[in-house]
Amino acid sequence: MPVFDLGLQPLANDFAGPDEAHSGYAPLRVMFCPRCTLAQLSVVVDPEILYRRYSYVTSISETMLDHFQKLMSLLSGETTGTSVLEIGSNDGRLLQYMQSHGMRVCGIDPAQNLCEIANSMNLRTVCGHFNKETARSTQSCFGSFDCVLARHVFCHVDNWREFIESLSEVTHPDSIVGIEVPYCVDMLNRGEFDTIYHEHTSYMTVQAMDALLKGSSFRIYKIVRFPIHGGAIMMLLCHRDSQRSTDESVAAYLKEQVTTQTWSEFSALARTNIEELKKFVSEKVSLGSTVVGFGASAKSTVFINACRFTRTQIRFITDTTPQKQWKLSPGTDIPIVDEGAILRELPDYAVCFAWNFRDEIVAKNTLARSKGVRFVFPIPRLEIV
Ligand code: TMP
Questions:
Q1: Which of 24, 80, 169, 192, CA to CA, is 20 to 30 A from 199?
Q2: Which positions ≥6 away from 376 have C-beta within 8 Å?
Q3: Would you call 50 helix, strand, or coil by DSSP?
Q4: What CA–CA distance (Å, rounded) separates 211 from 186?
Q5: Which pLDDT belongs to residue 359?
Q6: Is 81:147 a contact under the CB 8 Å cutoff?
Q7: How far is CA 154 from the centre of its chain?
Q8: 305 ligand 1 Cβ < 6 A
Q9: pLDDT tens profile 212-255
Q10: What distance in angstroms lies between residue 22's CA and the mean position of ligand 1's atoms?
């Protein structure tokens, strides 16, 4: 049944140059299954369109480095193995970190431009989607891996069954698989509606994952929660007949309930978050204040279009990613500029669409704040720093 609907929306990461056309719009509507508690988008956009001009680069920030550190210590507590395959390895930031800690690393990612960056840094990266065919060819070139990691990639996958089956090709009986997903319960409780966009075809609960794995050769043996990206869980999988005991965290997460009522409360919270930011920006702009955006994340596209902001309201959005700078935000054509623009232009307000890096953003903008720039965090509730 439908539980959340933002209508027709542009593709969130479709940042296009002034001479390029944007890829268009598609419905952004979430359907929920009360039986297995899985939520999925009603429409899946062709991956060829969605990822052909992919500008999302894993941000290298204090927050992310701290997360990488936590992942390393988790993995070294779980396995003595030293080889890692990362599915959706992006430009290889995590692989680089793991390699520097003595791991034998390999990546697989569909974005040609990002694979080239990773390979140029000697981080072996296969270019392609993870499926039976690429899993087999990766295994025949590099052997099986002690650990397979898929961070924030499972929710991008439409053919889950093939994804899970392909894991058998690249693992051995003692391998572990770490699947990190945005945690649906955190998203629902905090009204993080801007993490709903066309690339995220599913919103995962542990019950839904457990149901999916029932007929497979894998099972979840442990779940670890992380604050990254507004709340995420790492589901650790092992082969079904492995000797590993199932940690008590699994039963605890299986008890967390998501119902149609949870989605309806989330929907109301999301509308409040949209209305609050809309009102705030409209009032400030009508009083002559300048407002800009901070962080051209996919979330910024969703938030800005849900609020129907224009480029006269949000003058520009800053972002540290070179691939995004001097491009236009989908749906509104708000320009993306470098982060130095904050100090050059000294706007009155910078709306932080990368709210998931709140503490880091506040800390690194002390100078701008001392010069009068106020930072606005729209999630979980409007906050001005
Ligand atoms: P993400 O939340 O999807 O990782 O996207 C965060 C975006 O925000 C990414 O494009 C990088 C950008 N960013 C900045 O521009 N400045 C910052 O200080 C941080 C932490 C992120």
A1: 169
A2: 277, 280, 349, 350, 351, 352, 382, 383, 384, 385
A3: helix
A4: 20
A5: 94
A6: yes
A7: 10
A8: no
A9: 999 999 999 999 999 999 899 999 999 999 999 999 999 999 99
A10: 21
